[in-house]
Amino acid sequence: DVTYDVETAQKKWRAVWEDLNPFQAADDGSRERRYALTMFPYPSGDLHMGHAEVMALHDVIARYWWQRGYDVLNPIGWDSFGLPAENAAIKRDEHPATYTYANIETQAESFRRYAVSFDWSRRLHTSDPEYYRWTQWLFLRFRERGLAYRKSSPVNWCPNDQTVLANEQVVGGMCDRCGAEVTKRELTQWYFKVTDYAQRLLDDMEGLKDTWPERVLAMQRNWIGRSEGAYVDFDIEPRDGQDEALSVTVFTTRPDTLYGATFFVVAADAKLADELCAPEQREAFDSYLTQVRKESDIDRLASDRPKTGVFLGRHAVNPVSGERIPVWAADYVLADYGTGAVMAVPAHDQRDLDFAQAFDLPVRMVVDTGEPDPAQTFVATPGDGTYVSSSSDGFSLDGLSDKVTGIRRIVERLEAEGHGRSAVNFRLRDWLLSRQRFWGCPIPIVHCPTCGEVPVPDDQLPVVLPDLRGADLKPKGTSPLAAAEDWVNVDCPSCGGPAKRDSDTMDTFVDSSWYFLRYCSPHYTDGPFDPDAVRDWMPAHQYVGGVEHAILHLLYSRFFTKVLHDMGMVDFEEPFQALMNQGQVINQGKAMSKSLGNGVNLGEMIDRYGVDAVRLTLVFAGPPEDDIDWADMSPSGSLKFLQRAWRLSGDVTAPVGGAVDAGDVALRKATHRTVADAAQLIDGHRFNVMVARVMELVNTTRKAIDAGCGPADPAVREAVEAVAVLLSLVAPYTAEEMWARLGHQPTVARAGWPVVDEALLVEDSVTAVVQVQGKVRARLEVAPGIAEADLEAAAMADPGVQRALEGKTVRKVIVRAPKLVNIVAG
Ligand code: ANZ
Ligand code: ZN
């Protein structure tokens, strides 16, 4: 069999495409716009199979939109600041910039060879000063709105990367970058106030529920973690005039169990614990705190862990009953959730009960659930039941057995006396954005001994990262920028006195929280983006990328978009209309990894089978969300299919542009049905099925050529042209080869979607016979699937049948769809 040379075709068409530049968005309003967005890569190393998969899937959509006549925005850029590249550079003793930009060039070259339909004129890198100038500008605007602020608190610390991490970057207690166990440190850091947007981030997911994967929404919902409950204020008893009366608030989801609170617990690492600690407990407390500081949150929350804690030598007063309860410090209460203090109700909360058991504290049941008394069994009873032992001073819940009413009544009582109020609490924390690392966007703030925090004026942006070539960039716990004397020492923009720049850099996720907006006008110099361009293109119609970003990047981008909306800079509140998560490419049932030695090299696969075969294999493997086990794939089979499709184009002898009406009807029907179905399948993201349908059409056409209507039939040309256009979404080189052989000018990528003739989609008809009194009175052409009632109605309406029935009464109609109607009349 003849074949085309893959390598030659790849060289040839790449040059032609670069010349024609078919994928540059016209951006002139002449056509309806579509924004196809894919998560931009980190420049660590060359592209791998995962990139190949996501780009192949994403490109089906982008190329389809081009064929449908939309003006498509399909941009590419690099998320080029950040830890992974910085760490890799340090390991190789290279400067992060050198390493990063070299990788970008390698990846860009690979993307071009891989023939992704990117608009290269919009390329951006977040580590370019033209880009991060606006990251800094946005930071300053957020700060003006009180949405970027500095505070001191215990933060997640990666001892390996020697930097703080956002909560979202701690996975199972480990650094999601390097896997080291995360510890806590008390540090003053910059935060974005995401918590102000918690409710809106939650509410607006409603509008995404049909277009985003449910598991992503569920993960975000869970991360935001909304809880309804109440704040309850407890007075702390003054100790014989030594200290002032103090009130401490707790957050509880069960205010109705207030009478069961037998002790009070403050997070050991909260400032409050230190403040409350009585002098005689100081030593015990300090040594306990040292121990707690070494623990990760995961350890602290583990329910099977023995409870530890220290009595603080103080008592809190129950605001309703007046009961005195001891105040403890413990690690199972977290400093940064709720208020960092809890009223412990051991009877109905297992963590509190474990603590009570460990320290021999009282257990009082206040909800009788019918289960054995927790004081005896040490099994808490969190369920519903009837209130007991819950009354004082003319107030009582006793006998009531409805939790909702119980909560309402106790909260009303607390509110009336000014000791509490109902409250909603979120698990979501503010986003810690400073990093003690070099390769990131500098924070545009100057710290002045006289003026305090001073923003760098807009006209002095960007604060450019110093080069520091030859300096030691290894993580040391403080940013390498702090040691760059020339850079860090500046005149205060406000008073002119000696001051210092903030030497931390921003989390890379800040850079990636707005890049999709920048793509709309990447060369704009009057702001982060041109509002008109953003209005034209955003929100992105389709976002494609990995589920590993389900929380971090997607939550942060949603937050940024909402803030920009509130600033009046964009007129929408959600950045991504639809989201698709691809599965993983694995090998032999396992994730590819160096240690398993099961990595598959993308470059080698392309060298061996060609770009198209690799792309086709990845798209054909299964539904996009499913993992692909490369060991089960057959790229050589894909290549064989592509050659078979291509051979069709050499067999066509009907002239270009000839009339097709007289062509073979069966083949025409197959073609038009395939094109119509392909459109629906692509809209439903069933790309693998779409490919299967193209394969069928190739087989049908081959049969028609060899054993049917023959190669000269215009229906053959029509079929092969359709195959070329459909294949252009997946196998652009092969499609271009076919298109040229069919006598067309490049590029098939912009040939346009074949127009479907609806008449050719009508199912084949069958002939139904209508008899009246045993005599055939009519023959009807009907659809094979016609319903009995429809067939009967059609028979009755036939003029020949009506004539035969004139003057008669219909006694009985027997319908055998789709072939026969028998009418008995008399
Ligand atoms: C009394 C109580 C009685 C509670 C009861 C539960 C059951 P979610 O649903 O996760 O919001 N809590 C509050 N702040 C805490 C902190 N900083 N660290 C650890 N635990 C804390 O949980 C809210 C409940 O978790 C609160 O309601 C509080 O215990 C505890 F039968 O208060 B509860
Ligand atoms: Zn100053």
UniProtKB/TrEMBL annotation:
A motif ('KMSKS' region) lies at residues 591-595. GO terms for molecular function: aminoacyl-tRNA deacylase activity; ATP binding; leucine-tRNA ligase activity. Its EC number is 6.1.1.4. Belongs to the class-I aminoacyl-tRNA synthetase family. Signal peptide: none annotated. ATP binds at residue 594. It comes from Nocardioides mesophilus. It is found in: Cytoplasm. It holds the Pfam family tRNA-synt_1. The gene is leuS. It catalyses: tRNA(Leu) + L-leucine + ATP = L-leucyl-tRNA(Leu) + AMP + diphosphate. Residues 428-629 form the Aminoacyl-tRNA synthetase class Ia domain. Keywords: Aminoacyl-tRNA synthetase, ATP-binding, Cytoplasm, Ligase, Nucleotide-binding, Protein biosynthesis. Residues 38-182 form the Methionyl/Leucyl tRNA synthetase domain. PROSITE patterns: AA_TRNA_LIGASE_I. Gene3D superfamilies: 3.10.20.590, HUPs, Isoleucyl-tRNA Synthetase, Domain 1, Valyl/Leucyl/Isoleucyl-tRNA synthetase, editing domain. This is Leucine--tRNA ligase.
